[in-house]
Specification:
Layout lengths: L4 E6 L14 E8 L3 E10 L3 E11 L2 E4 L2 E4 L1 H21 L3 E8 L5 E4 L21 H7 L2 H8 L8 H6 L8 E4 H10 L4 E2 H4 L5 E2 L4 E2 L17 E2 L4 E4 L2 H7 L6 E3 L5 H7 L8 E6 L3 E7 L6 H5 L3 E4 L5 E7 L3 H12 L6 H9 L21 H11 L8 H27 L5 E5 L6 H11 L3 E3 L4 H13 L7 H9 L5 E3 L20
Parallel strand pairs: 2-7, 7-15, 10-13, 16-20, 20-21
Antiparallel strand pairs: 1-4, 2-3, 3-4, 5-6, 8-9, 11-12, 14-15, 16-17, 17-19, 18-19, 21-22
Helix pairs in contact: 8-15, 11-13, 13-14
Length: 512
């Protein structure tokens, strides 16, 4: 579908954008989360700044297939082609040229491709339980401390390294992470973008290369992953068959961006100071700070922080915290029972409740899989001695309080482990529109919260492409100044005590 709406506009920052060689150049962003995806057109010019136009939206989600939870990749790619076709049509009507295409998605999941370029099976989802049984097998071969000292990766039972251990055979195959698999289908070129590579558990956080010393002990082929590509580098141009199908020239480039959606989102955090923390809030919450160097200490491992690559060689020092998946799953469960209140109403009712209700550990792995989330949340509250009424508003308030408390704990740990202090917290992504969550986060952290932009991931995607094309000049500071110039962020100031929160609440989630 063509929504034809401009969802975000950021005027150009003085000195940040140079006159493009082609004033009609635009950039296509493929931005896919765990629950939905979209194809957008980004326009960058010295006069009007950056605008994003949503061209095509489509649902995404896991399906039960062949005894597991998987992604219907063929259907997903068909939607990508629909979006690119619509984008080509819109650009042509406006006498514009799509200069390049960038792709970002969630992390850790992959598809296995044989020598003929065929996908050998439908990719598993990280929400499938298969990798839990392999964790001990991997750690028997590679000690957890040794793994962390090299990769700096947070332990999650669905990390790529554990998923690969569950594969029956890998000989003659290559693993392409989901955005790289889409790029391969578009260009025929096999590459692994570095920000997503750093989520696999097989990437050296210091060297910035594959940790090949781990491949042999795990029985993994050295050629399992393609060579690495950095954000801003070209992956390749469109295959003739793809170009013909979507109506674009074969010379149209696919350019690597921060293909892990959080990497693109963090690149577009509108921070005008270095001492900031960020929360990329969507299906998951990614909470942390930006660093120049990884933190690979045993204390960092014990605290389960991750050192993932960001744009321009930065380190996203963060921890996964539960996200708004809990809320969306509750809504799905209630709808199945015939109860479908508006999200705005749910949040309004939750904000009207007094503080001090039960809380849960929102990032507990018990909440990873789908299925009867309200029941699981009440059970978790009981396990900690709390009594949570079945009323939807109470469950929603429990989720919001628990997320805010989790954010505060994680940020305090990040400051302690890095020796840095954040003066402000930026919330980007869908959760930046949730006023209740933003205020509770300010209260819990004791720091001002700057919310927005909601479209940070797509903005980061487009601006990295624009910089590669020479339209945007400078580094991350210049990109962030451009975003901050007029992105309309909202600031929430901490209050000393939790009062009744009765403002209008808006919430959307597109990112993972």
């Amino acid at each position: 579908m063509n929504n034809g709406t401009t969802t975000s506009t950021v005027p150009a920052h003085a000195g940040a954008v140079s006159a493009p060689a082609d004033p009609n150049a635009v950039f296509a962003a493929i931005d896919i989360g765990a629950s939905s995806g979209r194809v957008m057109l980004g326009r960058v010019s010295p006069a009007s700044g950056v605008s994003l136009e949503t061209i095509h939206r489509f649902p995404n989600g896991v399906v039960e297939l062949d005894g597991g939870l998987r992604w219907d990749f063929d259907a997903l790619f068909a939607e990508v082609l629909k979006g690119l076709t619509a984008a080509a049509s819109v650009a042509a009507k406006n006498d514009e040229r799509i200069a390049s295409i960038g792709i970002d998605t969630w992390a850790v999941d992959y598809g296995l491709v044989n020598d003929a370029g065929e996908l050998t099976s439908v990719p598993f989802s990280y929400r499938d339980e298969r990798s839990r049984a392999t964790v001990d097998q991997v750690h028997a071969k590679l000690d957890e401390s040794r793994l962390y000292a090299t990769t700096g990766l947070q332990f999650l039972p669905f990390n790529t390294i554990y998923q690969l251990a569950a594969e029956p055979a890998l000989h003659g195959l290559q693993a392409l992470l989901i955005p790289d698999l889409i790029a391969f289908r578009l260009t025929g070129e096999r590459r692994t973008e570095v920000t997503n590579a750093s989520t696999t558990g097989l990437f050296d956080a210091v060297a910035g290369e594959w940790a090949t010393e781990f491949f042999e002990p795990l029985g993994l082929p050295r050629s399992l992953f393609p060579s690495l590509v950095q954000p801003g580098e070209a992956v390749g141009s469109l295959l003739p068959s793809i170009a013909n199908k979507v109506g674009l020239p074969e010379a149209t480039l696919v350019v690597a961006v921060g293909s892990h959606d959080t990497a693109s989102a963090v690149a577009a955090v509108p921070a005008l100071q270095q001492d900031f923390a960020y929360i990329s809030s969507g299906t998951w919450s990614l909470v942390g700070v930006e660093s120049k160097h990884p933190v690979l200490t045993e204390a960092s491992r014990t605290a389960n922080f991750t050192n993932e690559r960001g744009v321009d060689g930065t380190i996203r020092y963060l921890r996964n915290v539960g996200g708004l998946w809990l809320l969306s799953e509750c809504q799905r469960a209630w709808a199945a029972e015939g109860y479908s209140p508006s999200l705005e109403g749910l949040l309004e009712d939750a904000g009207a409740l007094p503080p001090g209700g039960p809380q849960i550990n929102a990032d507990d792995s018990a909440f990873t899989a789908p299925g009867n989330m309200p029941h699981r949340i009440r059970a978790a509250a009981r396990a900690t001695g709390g009594q949570l009424p079945e009323r939807a508003a109470n469950i929603v308030r429990c989720i919001m309080d628990s997320l805010a408390a989790g954010y505060a704990r994680t940020l305090a740990d990040a400051e302690r482990l890095t020796g840095r202090s954040a003066a402000v917290v930026h919330i980007v992504g869908g959760g930046s529109q949730n006023r209740l969550l933003c205020q509770l986060t300010a209260d819990a952290t004791g720091k001002p919260v700057i919310a927005g932009p909601v479209e940070a991931t797509a903005l980061g995607n487009v601006l990295i492409q624009a910089r590669a094309a020479g339209v945007v000049q400078g580094g991350l500071a210049e990109i962030r100044q451009l975003v901050a110039a007029n992105s309309g962020p909202v600031t929430y100031v901490p209050i000393d005590h939790h009062g009744t929160i009765t403002s209008t609440h808006i919430f959307a989630t597109d990112n993972a």
